[in-house]
Write a structure and sequence with these properties.
mainly alpha, about 65% helix, elongated
Length: about 80
C-alpha cells in the first residue's frame, strides 16, 4: 500500500492513531482527502483522482504536498 511513498513521507503511515489524527486534521480538506484516499483507502492515483474529479497529475501533486506538510508537522512536534 505504501510503495509509492519515499523516505520520510512514509512516516505518516507508521505512527500511532492519535498522532495521525492530529496531523491529518491540521491539513486542509483537499490535502487530507488525498492522503486518505491514497494511503488509507489504498486507491491508485487514477482512482483517487477520479473520486475527486481531478486529473492524475493534480492528485499526485496534492498528495506529495500533503505528505510534505505531514512530515514537516511531525518533525516540528518531535523537536
Amino acid at each position: 500500500m505504501i510503495g509509492f511513498l519515499k523516505g520520510h513521507d512514509a512516516a505518516i503511515v507508521g505512527i500511532n492513531e492519535p498522532v495521525t489524527d492530529r496531523v491529518l486534521s491540521a491539513l486542509p480538506e483537499k490535502d487530507r482527502s488525498a492522503v486518505l484516499l491514497r494511503v488509507y483507502e489504498g486507491l491508485s492515483g487514477r482512482e483517487a483522482a477520479a473520486v475527486e474529479g481531478l486529473d492524475e497529475s493534480t492528485m499526485s501533486v496534492r498528495l506529495r504536498e500533503a505528505l510534505r506538510k505531514c512530515a514537516a508537522r511531525l518533525k516540528e512536534e518531535s523537536s
